[in-house]
Amino acid sequence: SLVTLRELLKDAQEKNYAVGAFNTNNMEIVQAIIEAAEEERSPVILQASQGGVKYAGLDYVVAMVEAAAKNATVPVALHLDHGTSFEQIIKCVRAGFSSVMFDGSKHPLEENIEKTAKVIEIAHAAGLSVEAELGKIGGTEDDITVSEEDAMMTNPEEAKYFVEKTNVDALAIAIGTAHGPYKGEPKLDFDRLKTIRSMVSTPLVLHGASGVGEESIKKVIELGITKINIDTDIRQAFTRGVQDVVNSKPEEYDPRKILGPAKEEMKKIIKEKMQLFGCANKA
Ligand code: G3H
Ligand code: 13P
Ligand code: ZN
């Protein structure tokens, strides 16, 4: 059966590693993530965004992850990524997710707190964990100036206030990463992370981690990040796998011969992440 985020992140925090949270949209991605976790002996979080749920269908997402978890010998959590509507959260609670993210980062602080608290009340009553977001993690395509970027970053005082008010299980913070592929290396605000960590004991989450260099990843884990989200790196591995086959064997028409290698490409990068995050051999 599925485990909660709270349970996974507690162990990560105690032992100073980060659990990888990998976005999934279809069966091959689910299989790549679970096989990588088994081979690396790693606890793992499979997560689906609202777009992912819409694409695959809620029942399919749950059924696929439950099928993966059924024979798994490592702990598996199923998490909603960036839930923005109360309705979506309730659907995931009912469908069997073990954890949800409520992303109220677009709202003013008090409204974000109020909405997050409401989600927590319901999710906790049903036995699920909740991740919230404070500060704005944008997209690399957003085209923002340095001062705008600074304004989007998580304010440490607000983070302390937010967790005191909500008692949330995990907090996503903005320290300079963005969703999607980077042009060049992102500059992370390590001092901000250090300050937040010194004021907040809640497990902290790094979004937009695809394309962030190994040294930076090691440093944020050292400074207290316990959940790291990866989507783009998996998408790119999948697409590279498909392209390799269709380019080298244009006559291939068996989907298994096209998606099979794509799955292997994804597995490779997921296993590398697990080793880098330190969650390998922690199951
Ligand atoms: O946070 C963004 C994730 O990569 C999910 O993206 O909404 O396109 O599924 P998506
Ligand atoms: P990337 O696509 O940049 O890896 O971000 C993933 C993420 O933060 C999902 O919530
Ligand atoms: Zn994200």
TrEMBL record:
GO terms for biological process: fructose 1,6-bisphosphate metabolic process; glycolytic process. The active site is at residue 81. This is Class II fructose-1,6-bisphosphate aldolase. Its cofactor is Zn(2+). Zn(2+) 2 binds at residues 103, 133. InterPro entries: Aldolase_TIM (IPR013785), Class_II_FBP_aldolase (IPR050246), FBA_II (IPR000771), Fruc_bis_ald_class-2 (IPR011289). It holds the Pfam family F_bP_aldolase. Binds 2 Zn(2+) ions per subunit. One is catalytic and the other provides a structural contribution. One of its GO terms (molecular function) is fructose-bisphosphate aldolase activity. It comes from the Bacteria. Keywords: Lyase, Metal-binding, Zinc. Zn(2+) 1 binds at residues 82, 179, 207. Signal peptide: none annotated. Dihydroxyacetone phosphate binds at residues 180, 208-210, 229-232. Its EC number is 4.1.2.13. The keyword Metal-binding applies. It comes from Proteinivorax hydrogeniformans. The keyword Zinc applies. It is an enzyme of class 4 (lyase).
